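Action item from last meeting closed. Structure (172 res):
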């Protein structure tokens, strides 16, 4: 074999090894990576009501958007403003409204889950101090698959009609 033939064989062999990696990094792969990274759990619109100084417990309401294709589950919650944070569901029994503690809450894939007055909520047990309008505090949610997510809760006046439209930051 002459030198020209050896170089051509070498170049062809090298190109055949490189080509699969180039094909792997085409634009469609980058789009899939971007879409995969943006599909996650988003916690937002967290709010609580301002309470009188002697009130021992409070509640937090928020929205969770599960933008992934994977079901997840809230296992626990905690916040520095309360000794304990528990998951609750309000249940109507005739004329009575009762609260039932939940050990976990399922958040279905590609769906939103709403914590709102008269439904699911997070109970702040044994508040460390009074919740005052304008105050903000962190709330940490622990998910089975996503892990921990922190959301900032905004305290609103009890008579504020826009409580459900509150916005909040979230951190993953």
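Sequence:
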């Amino acid at each position: 074999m002459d030198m020209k033939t050896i170089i051509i064989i070498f170049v062809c062999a090298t190109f055949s090894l490189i080509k699969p990696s180039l094909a792997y990094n085409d634009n469609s792969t980058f789009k899939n990576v971007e879409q995969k990274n943006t599909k996650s759990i988003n916690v937002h619109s967290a709010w609580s009501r301002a309470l009188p100084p002697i009130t021992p417990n409070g509640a937090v309401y928020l929205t969770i958007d599960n933008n992934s294709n994977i079901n997840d589950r809230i296992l626990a919650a905690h916040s520095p403003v309360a000794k304990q944070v528990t998951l609750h569901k309000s249940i109507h029994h005739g004329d009575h409204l009762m609260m039932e503690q939940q050990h976990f809450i399922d958040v279905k894939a590609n769906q939103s889950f709403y914590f709102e007055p008269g439904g699911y909520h997070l109970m702040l047990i044994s508040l460390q101090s009074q919740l005052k309008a304008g105050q903000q505090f962190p709330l940490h949610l622990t998910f089975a698959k996503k892990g921990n997510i922190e959301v900032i809760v905004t305290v609103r006046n009890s008579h504020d009609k826009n409580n459900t439209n509150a916005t909040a930051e979230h951190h993953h």
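Note appended to the action item: The longest strand covers residues 82-93.
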